[in-house]
Specification:
It contains 21 helices and 13 strands. It is of the alpha+beta class. It folds into four domains: 4-110, no CATH class; 153-263, no CATH class; 281-364 and 454-494, Nucleotidyltransferase, domain 5 (2-Layer Sandwich), CATH 3.30.420; 376-439, no CATH class. The strands form four sheets. Strands 1, 4, 5, 6, 7 and 8 form a six-stranded mixed sheet that branches. A three-stranded antiparallel sheet has the order 9-10-11, with no helix packed on it. α15 (350-353) links the parallel β7 (336-341) and β8 (360-362).
């Protein structure tokens, strides 16, 4: 009776009402037993908290976008949280902040965050809202900017060195400037590396001189750290910071013939862009949209609207690579796809390249260039005989992924040469590795029914926008795995 006035007063945050009514369906006794396996029984410490009460907190946290500290506040001050967590008018939080953080680590380590998402799908299936085992699903991605600070080469080096020296300073109970001077790198003790260098950006040789000074500081600190008698518990943290500091020149710096260090021309493969988050990368969603961080991806069932699987990749990784993880999630749910709606970025994915004959793919093919000459569609591909038939009756063998070069002598004697090519070498026709699939897509999208099918994929963009609203434009955590956890619980909220 005390909860009913609270429910009536909730106008926008309807997730609280939904979870209060359906939490027993999501967190069944069997699922709570699964969650309980994350912990071992002990007679010491505080009395145990029910697994559902503890696992509901990260879901509400994703919905309201509050921090771990704020969770401790709202569980004692917000009656909506107290209603869902079964602690109405409680004067104390159901758990401590350390328990909440430990739960997150345990969920990630045991893949139980995936089980939270699966439970929403299983609950929908039990209610009859999901339908058959085979799904008509759409897959797409959206940008997720990283939580780490992006910096150029000089600042990356200075930040990493400052971290290493700072750890030793804290361990020894000394001030950072004193330890930095002793290490032979006083410039890393300031708040700004560029201010310590005091270099003029308009001077042509200033950047070269600054790079030389920073590299000298790196060598000085590296030598000084090696001479320290003992670092104790700080040794792993110091080693990690020095590893980052050594990684930066290895990827960004090269030497001239005279031995002078200089910045590398171009970008090294897998270039590190942040000290705090080593998995962030520069990448792009399109030619105009550049990302410093990650790409989040979601697979949405078009019939029920549920997000059934998600993934996160560094921004420089092609979208197609995420399908391996999504296929594993689908196998864990014992589900198969009957229809997959994608864009061309997923053409090289395992879901498409290794698809069964029963899986129908829907995608917009590349347009055929139009001009004064015969288009590619004028060349008929005989897949049974692996032969291409030209407009003039020329028959040439082909292999997927290769190119067919019509002999110049044949083209020169043809009556249709002026409409085919002006190249002295003859007409050249490239065959895409997935040319058969592209041809199928082109034929389908010429029909009204095919174009209507293509428009269905917009639903997954809406789902990604909803999850992006809860997750935010910038990642909450550092690293791929923690952000997968965050995206999965946002998908739970969406479902």
């Amino acid at each position: 009776m005390a909860e009913r006035p609270i429910i009536k007063r909730i106008r926008r945050a309807k997730l609280f009402v939904f979870l209060r009514h359906h939490r027993h369906e999501l967190f069944t006794d069997a699922f709570q037993q699964e969650l309980a396996t994350l912990y071992k029984e002990s007679l010491q410490g505080s009395p145990p908290v029910p697994p559902a009460q503890l696992a509901l907190a990260p879901i509400l946290q994703a919905s309201t976008r509050v921090s771990d500290d704020e969770v401790m506040e709202v569980t004692t001050m917000d009656r909506r949280w107290q209603m869902v967590l079964n602690g109405l008018d409680s004067a104390s939080a159901p758990c401590r902040k350390g328990t909440l953080v430990a739960l997150r680590h345990r969920l990630i380590a045991q893949q139980m965050d995936r089980r939270l998402l699966e439970r929403t799908v299983e609950s929908a299936a039990a209610s009859g809202a999901l339908g058959a085992r085979q799904w008509r699903a759409a897959l797409d991605s959206s940008p997720l900017w990283g939580a780490g600070r992006v910096a150029e080469t000089d600042n990356l080096l200075g930040h990493a060195l400052r971290q290493a020296v700072g750890v030793i300073a804290r361990q020894q109970g000394r001030e950072l400037p004193a330890v930095a001077n002793e290490a032979g790198a006083p410039l890393v003790s300031g708040a700004s590396l560029k201010a310590a260098l005091a270099w003029d950006g308009d001077e042509p040789t200033a950047r070269q001189q600054a790079l030389t000074i920073v590299l000298e500081a790196l060598h000085a600190v590296d030598h000084w750290v090696a001479t320290q008698p003992t670092l104790g518990e700080a040794a792993p943290e110091v080693a990690a910071s020095m590893a980052v500091a050594c990684q930066v020149p290895a990827q960004d710096v090269t030497c001239r013939p005279d031995g002078t260090p200089t910045l590398r021309q171009g970008v090294a493969e897998e270039r590190r862009i942040s000290v705090e988050d080593g998995e962030m990368r520069h990448g792009g969603k399109s030619r105009s949209l550049l990302i410093a961080g990650y790409k989040r991806q979601g697979l949405r069932d078009l019939e029920s609207g549920l997000v059934v699987a998600v993934g996160v990749t560094p921004a420089n990784v092609p979208e197609a690579s995420v399908t391996e993880a999504i296929a594993i999630d689908l196998a864990a749910q014992q589900r198969t796809l009957a229809e997959l709606h994608i864009d061309r970025a997923y053409l090289a994915s395992t879901l498409v390249q290794q698809r069964s004959a029963a899986l129908a793919s829907v995608c917009k093919a590349w347009p055929v260039p139009q001009g004064p000459y015969f288009p590619k569609s004028a060349f008929h591909l005989d897949w049974g005989r692996r032969a291409v038939h030209g407009p003039g009756g020329v028959v040439m063998p082909f292999e997927p992924g290769g190119a067919v070069q019509c002999p110049a002598s044949t083209c020169a004697s043809g009556a249709l040469r002026e409409r085919c090519t002006t190249s002295p070498a003859g007409r050249r026709v490239s065959i895409h590795p997935a040319e058969a699939l592209l041809t199928e897509w082109r034929e389908r999208q010429r029909t009204p029914q095919g174009r209507a099918k293509l428009r269905e994929r917009v639903a997954v963009a809406h789902a990604l926008a909803h999850m992006g609203h809860w997750q935010g434009r910038r990642a909450r955590y550092r690293g791929v795995r923690k952000n997968v956890f965050d995206l999965r619980r946002c998908a739970v909220v969406h479902n």
